[in-house]
């Protein structure tokens, strides 16, 4: 039993690595599936567009999904049209760009993985480059090759050129080698950039290594407790409302946070050394609602908006 608990703890501690590994496996599997089933190079004038579409379109979709599935994206942008100060609070204008940068970097992981795997495979790049009409690229690709290479490069992927099978295969291997070089360059660049950003963030950290570890643990536990408590409270409130409706009686008072409290607890968190709050919820609980004049105005505006929505539904 102790061995199983130790293994489970190890898995939980390494969930980030396991998650990225699982993402990498999905990326490799998806790329192979696209290459074998869906991808058919037309071997014509559409080679460039077709190859680039298969190379970059899935990466773009993965980037959009990364934004959609990142909770910080919605925490950052929810209500920003009604209250622009939520993303540009006074005295903390750079915080928006800092958080947005973190969201973009985390969303770029899957697209970079896709591009790396696709370039290492070389199929999409080979198709795209074989359709180029650029004199510079043609000179680079066909240098030292038979003269037919300049006129029939778009047929290389299909093996339908008038060149010998050996020359055709050498040309394909040359294009695949270029693709793999670009793939490894992308992997090395992304790894180095990730190291630089991590080192920069740690160098500018306002807390020590142990306190940062505690902060991460607290944030994870608070998130788990918050989700469980939401489910519990929503269940109790729905049961109370349903019971009062069926029994046709007035409901008992059910304690809930005020509208202003919900707004305050939904803000992005900024750490201050003189006030060691490890989350926005922690700050709201300990300090209460200390609204500035612009925040009070915003709260009234949002409450008025909510009342207008209710009146619209009523009519």
UniProtKB/TrEMBL annotation:
It is a multi-pass membrane protein. One of its GO terms (molecular function) is monoatomic cation channel activity. Pfam families: Ca_hom_mod. It comes from the Eukaryota. It is found in: Membrane. The chain crosses the membrane at residues 7-28, 48-69, 96-120, 181-201. Keywords: Ion channel, Ion transport, Membrane, Transmembrane, Transmembrane helix, Transport. One of its GO terms (biological process) is ATP export. GO terms for cellular component: plasma membrane. InterPro entries: CALHM. The keyword Transport applies. Belongs to the CALHM family. This is FAM26E. It comes from Cervus elaphus hippelaphus (European red deer).
């Amino acid at each position: 039993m102790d061995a199983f608990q130790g293994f489970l703890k190890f898995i939980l501690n390494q969930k980030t690595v396991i998650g990225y590994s699982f993402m990498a496996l999905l990326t490799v599997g998806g790329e192979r599936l696209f290459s074998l089933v869906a991808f058919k190079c037309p071997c014509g004038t559409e080679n460039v567009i077709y190859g680039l579409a298969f190379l970059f379109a899935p990466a773009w979709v993965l980037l959009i999904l990364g934004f959609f599935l990142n909770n910080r994206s919605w925490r950052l942008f929810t209500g920003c049209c009604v209250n622009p100060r939520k993303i540009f609070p006074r005295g903390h204008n750079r915080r928006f760009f800092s958080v947005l940068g973190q969201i973009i970097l985390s969303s770029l992981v899957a697209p970079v993985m896709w591009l790396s795997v696709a370039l290492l495979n070389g199929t999409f790049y080979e198709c795209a480059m074989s359709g180029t009409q650029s004199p510079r690229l043609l000179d680079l690709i066909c240098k030292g090759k038979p003269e037919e290479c300049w006129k029939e490069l778009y047929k290389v992927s299909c093996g339908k050129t008038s060149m010998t099978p050996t020359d055709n295969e050498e040309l394909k291997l040359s294009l695949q080698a270029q693709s793999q070089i670009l793939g490894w360059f992308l992997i090395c660049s992304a790894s180095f950039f990730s190291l630089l950003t991590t080192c920069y963030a740690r160098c500018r950290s306002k807390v020590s290594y142990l306190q940062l570890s505690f902060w991460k643990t607290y944030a994870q536990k608070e998130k788990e407790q918050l989700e469980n408590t939401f489910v519990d409270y929503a269940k109790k409130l729905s049961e109370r409302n349903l019971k009062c409706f069926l029994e046709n009686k007035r409901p008992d008072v059910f304690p809930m946070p005020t509208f202003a409290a919900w707004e305050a607890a939904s803000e992005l968190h900024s750490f201050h050394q003189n006030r060691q709050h490890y989350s926005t919820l922690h700050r709201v609980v300990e300090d209460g609602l200390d609204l500035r004049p612009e925040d009070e105005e915003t709260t009234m505006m949002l409450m008025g908006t909510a009342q207008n929505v209710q009146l619209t539904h009523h009519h």
